[in-house]
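[SOLVED] Need 3D model of a two-part complex

Original post:
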Amino acid sequence: ILNVEQSPQSLHVQEGDSTNFTCSFPSSNFYALHWYRWETAKSPEALFVMTLNGDEKKKGRISATLNTKEGYSYLYIKGSQPEDSATYLCAFNPPDSSYKLIFGSGTRLLVRP
Amino acid sequence: NAGVTQTPKFQVLKTGQSMTLQCAQDMNHEYMSWYRQDPGMGLRLIHYSVGAGITDQGEVPNGYNVSRSTTEDFPLRLLSAAPSQTSVYFCASRLWDKANEKLFFGSGTQLSVL
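Solution:
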């Protein structure tokens, strides 16, 4: 069974703090690694899709890095704001299929004002 | 564009009842999929399709049927609902055979089976 592990499971930070989460995945036959942001009562929305080892993506205060050789990705949020409160999901394609996307259970972030 | 549209938003069923969750997209995406989300677990893939007439199983297909007669629609059928199928269901689509393309999600269907 292929697992995508995300840590920590949940995180409470103060407004203005910077934070980061980890996504670990099997490193063989890598296709792509996705990050999604999921606010309560809404649908998941894509943040980044990364395909190359060493990829770095940035969107405002949020950035992500990818290491396919060791099987991990980091998501960073600089200067967290209350509106960043959400569950952050990562997902990857298993080696036998570029059609299936396997999701981790997410990191739940709460930013206190 | 409306994106991915799911109906209904909420549904309560009795054990043994059948129902169909509807999903439609207007982005001409070949790839469509159904996920379920349960507390403490990630989104789990039920079934997916890479085009009209083509469907395949995901991680948790048992108890669910799908069909894809058009590019736009991908309904999910529960033939005999069980309490274990109480969950939140999401439909998602993207351009096919593009592992680096992001998924677009519908708004979800909250299903309770009593």
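Edit: The longest strand of chain B covers residues 44-51.
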